[in-house]
Amino acid sequence: MNNIISEDQKKSKEWLKDVSIRTAKRADLEKLEWEGEYIRFRNIYLEVFQRSRKGLAQMWVVDLEGFGLIGQAFVQFYPKKRFDSQGEKQGYIHAFRVREQYRGAGIGTILMKHIEKTLIEKGINEVTLNVAKDNRGALLLYKNLGYKLVGETSGRWWYHDHMNKIQEVVEPSWRLIKQLH
Ligand SMILES: CC(C)(COP(=O)(O)OP(=O)(O)OC[C@H]1O[C@@H](n2cnc3c(N)ncnc32)[C@H](O)[C@@H]1OP(=O)(O)O)[C@@H](O)C(=O)NCCC(=O)NCCS
After folding, report:
1. At residue 40, does pLDDT exceed 80?
2. Best mutation site among 93, 103, 149, 178 for ligand 1 pocket (most ligand atoms within 8 Å of CB)
3. pLDDT for residue 85
4. What residue's CA is closest to ligand 1, atom 8?
5. Atom nearest to 104 CA in ligand 1
6. Using CA atoms in the order 74, 80, 56, 72, what is the torsion angle rounded to 10 degrees?
7. Does residue 2 lie in a domain region?
8. Region 74-96: what's the mean pLDDT?
9. What's the confidence (pLDDT) of residue 8?
10. What CATH number did the domain enclosing 98 receive?
């Protein structure tokens, strides 16, 4: 995949018309490793994909024609309320990212709006997510989309990396919620 875009191309935003958002396919999982940058999440990607096959999760990718995948976000569906929820059916958004050279063009916002629309169609009435306390950019994006800060979390979790080694993550985070209508 050639994912290099020139500064001029980026500024023109002409490329936005070639962007599509779709559900991830099995063959996308490797591409989501972003040439090794996220290889450590291989097992997580597979697990979410398998959950998506059972209707328990959904994986979205942003596909730029001629370039490849430039963004992603996953949602876990929880039948009953979890976290500090008021809602009955909740979606938990995670693994939301846009490739660095494509940031700041509105892709992240477009993807979040697309996800919210799909969730509403599925009857999900609330979405929640965690954002690292030092991630001011993402926090601003969520606030602009109407997410409300409802609490905080230690952000401590574990996963098995691609070598099946346990990795611990500690990322003190804010917990945000948005009611969908
Ligand atoms: C967060 C992220 C997905 C946003 O994607 P994006 O395509 O750049 O988002 P948008 O272009 O729609 O940004 C919309 C607004 O969000 C805010 N914003 C997003 N990222 C920002 C940053 N790094 N610094 C400052 N503001 C930021 C701005 O208000 C921006 O509006 P502006 O461009 O008019 O200033 C992207 O920055 C990213 O992948 N970051 C690394 C991974 C990450 O932090 N994911 C979120 C985990 S909770």
Report:
1. yes
2. 103
3. 53
4. 103
5. 11
6. -10
7. no
8. 77
9. 72
10. 3.40.630.30
